[in-house]
Amino acid sequence: MIKFGDYNDLKVAREASFGLYLDKETGNTSDDILLPTGNILGETPKVGDVVTVFIYRDSKDRLIATMKKPLVTVDETAVLKVSSVTSFGAFVSFGLERDILVPKKEMKFPLAPEKEYLFFVYEDKTGRLAASTEVGRYLEAAPEGAYEIGQTVSGIVYDKQTNGTLEVAIDDQYLGIVLRNEYFFEAQPGDRITGSVKKILEDGRISFTPRKKMIDEKEELSESILTYLQNHDGFMPFNDKSTPEEIKRTWNSSKNYFKISLGNLMKKGLIRQDEKGTYLVEK
Q1: CB of 165 within 8 A of CB of 187?
Q2: Total structural domains in the chain?
Q3: What is the pLDDT of residues 74-87, one digit of tens each?
Q4: Does an H or E element contain 219, and which?
Q5: Structural domain of 84
Q6: What is the crossing angle of helices 214-231 and 255-267, to 10°?
């Protein structure tokens, strides 16, 4: 039986001027599957040879074979690039001539052309390959011991909860999350995030944070504040009374870290504050 959207080992039944026909083993030659010349890699197989091919459908919905390797097979997840967006969905490239449709009902969020996202590829009711952004149910928890507390990990955002928590596929395959209070920048599905493992949850999900160690983050923020002041005539309209929203929007930081950094800079005599903002101290 043919495994659609997957690899099959099939015997070459006969030759044609435009390729080879592979035996579908139905006893009916009209069912044989074409392996076009352009889809043959290396030396051309001979009649009777068994070849490993990927089976999908061409533009006329006929089963077609290729020796080329796609980026994903059916019932698997993969990071794929959006090639175009239409009124009825989007198309993603999976390494072969024909792109895969992402039906509009399978798009949990808007897709942007040329951006990569994590997709689940499946066979739809019409027998074609299709893709969905609903990937969480198809990801697995990382094997026990695969990651340790403090270890650096990276992954792709595949969803964003209403409370701001990011759902991330670590190494593009394992369940991970970044809580809302662990990041202070705009993040959307398709973005890649790197951080350190903070906790391994009971259900196996990896909770990690893109924030640096407190001392490193405070030092980096202090440098950013000084640079900002130097580039803005020694003044900025922010101080320790600024709102958390203003600080997050401009500095990608929490108000707590911002206040600590300002305090350290004032102790060093590098800045001063008043109700209007913060000033660079001239020496």
Answers
A1: no
A2: 4
A3: 999 999 999 999 99
A4: helix 214-231
A5: 76-136
A6: 70
Distance between CA atoms of residues 62 and 204, nearest Å: 42
The domain that holds 114 is classified in CATH as: 2.40.50.140
Residue carrying structure tokens 């350290």:
264
- The answer on 190 and 245 residing in a single domain is no
In this prediction, residues 123-149 reach a mean pLDDT of: 94
Q: 24 and 2 in contact (C-beta within 8 Å)? A: yes
Region class of 120: left (phi > 0), else alpha (psi between -120 and 50), else beta? beta
Quickly list DSSP for 159-177: EE-TTSPEEEEETTTEEEE
| Angle, CA 156 vertex, CA 76 and CA 100 arms, to 5° | 40
Q: Are residues 128 and 182 in the same domain?
A: no
253 within domain boundaries: yes
Strand partners, 116: 81
pLDDT at 41: 95
Q: Could you tell me if 151 and 131 lie in one domain?
A: no
Q: H or E stretch including 91?
A: strand 89-93
pTM over 0.85: no
Q: In the block, which residue shows the tokens 């001979």? A: 46
221, 258 contact by CB (below 8 A): yes
